[in-house]
Amino acid sequence: MRSPVEFSHRTRTRALETLDREPFDLLVIGGGITGAGIARDAALRGMRVLLTERRDFAVGTSSRSSKLIHGGVRYLQQGDVGLVMEAANERRVLRRLVPYLARPIQMLVPAQRRSGYAKLSAGLWTFDRMARVSHDERNQMLDREETLRLEPLLRADNIYGAAVYYECLTDDARLVLENLKSAVAFGATAVNYAPVERLVIEGGKVVGAVVRDVLGERAIEARASVAVNAAGPWVDEVRLLQGGGEKPRLHLTKGIHLIVPRERLPVVRSVVMTARDKRPVFAVPRGDTVYLGTTDTNYDGQYDDPAITREDVQYLLDAANDTFDVAPLGFDDVVGAWAGLRPLLHQDGKKPEEISRKDEIMVGPAGLISIAGGKLTTYRRMAERVVDMAAERAARLDGKRPHRRGESDSELLCGGATDEDLAAFIARLRTKWPEADADIVERLVGTYGSNGSRIVEGMMADPALGERAVPDLALTRGEVAYAVHDEMAMTLEDVLERRTRLFLWDVHNGLTAAPRVADWMAQLLGWSPDRRRAELAAYEDHVRDVKGFLGDAEPEELRALRA
Ligand code: FAD
Q1: How many angstroms does the Cα of residue 502 sit away from the middle of ligand 1?
Q2: Are strands 369-372 and 218-229 parallel, antiparallel or unpaired?
């Protein structure tokens, strides 16, 4: 693993000022997991890479997934053996490269009848062997009593038994950021708030793009031997920039998740529930919260921040209320939510849940390489396939073979130097710095992996960095400084939603911490009092919009802040 390098507003400004000076080998359009994985793979191969993202990194689908690195059980149900093997292998690789972002968790699947139980048992038996699951993580079949002992919250009336199998829990936006930081450590350039507005086409071929610096209000032409379109739901929009009669290929489906306080749904482990239309949906505990998801419905609305309807919410609440013996969950219990769009490839006559999740690479008339479909789980293999093609093309054009700097399946990701045992890593830090608060050390390692130790070290050297945003949260000034200096956070939303993730896992969505975080960001980024106020207002509006399905009422925390 290379030592991290500065990745901040300053490096962003410098990069944008020099974009038009030297041509790149590869231009990557889109800073979700697909683009970030491609940038890292290409940088490891020694290519000169530029990645541009129109808003913030991971703002699209890659911060809105179910946050699971699938072993591939679900693809076995669809009979896709190739995808099972690929997903299972990728899960093993990710656990090695970045243990804090691929933590094994048990999933409990209740069965209501003997026939369902037998089917589950046979399927998981096959999966364990096919995916070469290690002995200690093989599935277990439980009878009714064992099931209810493991998960007492289940409704007992219609349980025959259950299966327990392992998945890995990740944090999608953090996985994007760690890939990007790794790419940057190997020489890539990455900028956010910089949409590609136009492709530069000469002699019928893409030779670059016009990139707009949204924050600096200027347009810059960047040149590259090869361009890759990894724009997720916007893949068609970018493909059509080539002209030449390209036709749309995507089929977008929307998936939402809800967050409820753990005290309202105190599940012990993740549970696979069956929704009213027989689709499997999850309840996944995470800190003080549990998230429920997901839906899968055709979508034709706006791509940015897709709206959540009351019907979406009711569907998931019904699934939880049918599965667990708790006081019925209602709209008022929902403290947070997110909605994302699956950029799938259209297949005639298929329902949303039947459309294949496989990725496809499309080469357009002007040579633009586009990639769509796929999963967070298999992003590294998707990246390898795209870069194989791009590197070959770049070498043909300029006759050079760059010097490889590392292998994508063995070079640790940024934050990946913790070993699998995170608790032991945390314990070592606590012995080294006994004066550091336990909750802060845990939070930093849980959110930044091995880089958490750098933030603790900084706080030990400068106690001002240990200041908390609010007394009851472990969010410190040092963490916010890290988001700004090391992860190119440019707005309050960037910090609270995609760097620290308070937007999701804090029951107040980060609203109580927001004013203090805005103060710190104002100092770090030189914001005027007006800009600070505007950032705070924009974040409050954002939280209110996401929770809009609750009606017009303002969340209580917002009212308190305004008072
Ligand atoms: P995105 O993350 O959307 O990235 C594309 C980026 O391109 C965006 O940030 C966008 O702003 C940018 N962009 C667009 N146009 C331009 C432009 N002109 N210039 C510059 N940038 C541009 N997969 C799993 O493996 N496990 C799961 O548990 C899982 N759960 C899911 C649950 C849901 C509800 C959904 C919707 C998906 C789930 N997935 C899961 C799938 C996975 O999340 C996606 O496959 C993946 O995130 C897609 O990433 P992407 O980079 O292709 O797209």
Answers
A1: 20
A2: parallel
Whether pLDDT at 79 is above 90? no
Confirm or reject: Cβ of 233 under 6 Å from ligand 1. Answer: yes
Q: 132: buried, middle or exposed (CB in 10 Å: 19+, 13-18, 0-12)?
A: exposed
Give me 562's structure tokens.
């305004």
pLDDT at 552: 45
CA distances, 49 to each of 190, 191, 211, 358 (Å): 8, 11, 15, 26
Least confident of 78-92, 104-118, 381-395: 78-92
- The Cα–Cα gap between 122 and 119 comes to 5
- Do the beta carbons of residue 251 and residue 386 sit within 8 Å? no
String of b and e for 515-545 (b: at least 16 CB within 10 Å)?
ebbbbbbbebbebeeeebeebbeebbebbbe
Nearest CA-CA partner of 374 in 26, 31, 35, 29: 35
Residue 187 CA: distances (Å) to CA of 19, 407, 410, 472? 14, 15, 18, 39
Output the pLDDT for position 38: 98
Tell me how far the alpha carbon of residue 33 lies from the centroid of ligand 1, in angstroms: 6
Return d(Cα 423, Cα 234) in angstroms, integer: 40
- Give the orientation angle of helix 451-461 with respect to helix 422-432, to 10 degrees: 20
Q: Please give the Cα distance from 293 to 563 (Å, whole number).
A: 34
52 C-beta closer than 6 A to ligand 1: yes
> CB count, 10 Å around CB of 349?
5
pLDDT in tens, 326-343: 999 999 999 999 999 999
What does the pLDDT average to over 87-111? Answer: 96
